[in-house]
Amino acid sequence: NFVKALFEQEVPELADDVIRVEKIVREAGYRTKLAVSSSDNRVDPVGTCVGVRGTRIKNIIREINNEKIDVIPYSEDMVQLLQNALYPLQIQRLKINEKVTVVVADDDYPIAIGKKGMNARLISKLIDKEIDFQKLTEYQKLVTIHMAELSESDNPKLDQPLKIEGLSSLLVDGLISAGYDTVKKILLVPPKELMEKVPGINYLDLADKILEQNK
What we know:
By secondary structure, the chain is α/β, with parallel strands linked by helices. Helix content is about 45%, strand content about 20%.
């Protein structure tokens, strides 16, 4: 409420209801994240709150002892809001179940979680859902392990004619033409070899779909 009041002092468009603070979360002394929207398509909510050359937000930061403030475009779509909160970091993989699993590049991981995990906690509060951040290399290792475990199972579905939901028919035909006409055959081939023989295949995408459909 304190930080919101400071913004209301500096940003008259908030009082005029042109700009709205849709969500605000804070770890006092570390960082505030402010999700804002505009009722006028011609008005940029983020730019309005930041001010010309950052003049508005600099005054607020000064008042709270140089605490970091992230002003984010609000979205009712949780995934879009998550992407906005992480920008410019790129989400490599995203899974939504009871909690949200976000995979980011290894170099981006420390930035995503922040000091003592505080940035990750703030983003969780912002989207109202628990988030588990993972490094891309760790995620790749887990996928490789799960694919190996699946290859050792005696599930008869693995030897049936190839059918992978969510994968384009063009890529499925490419797999079949290359000799991978069952899931079992895909499981037994090294990822690098598979991608060399089937142009356009993203192994992680393929593995995710196979593991999802063969739980």
